[in-house]
Amino acid sequence: EESINVYPNPSTGIVNIDLKGAMTQNATLEVFNAMGQKVLSQIYTDAVGKFEIDLSGNAKGVYNIKLIVDGQVVSKLIVLQ
Length: 81
What we know:
This protein is mainly beta. The protein starts with a strand and ends with a strand. It is built from no helices and 7 strands.
């Protein structure tokens, strides 16, 4: 989990997810709001270790970012303000 960095946090909408330079074949990204509703789902193939997502269309609040990278699940919280 320490090998994944989500920034800036808090954010105004554009969120960077850095796998600290790791290369992976497959990554699934899911974002859930505070009510547990999925607001974003993306699948990356041949990922290079860094993603940018745009959450600016979502309400302010706390979101759970769930990353599944090569079978490993990591969750991080992000605050939209």
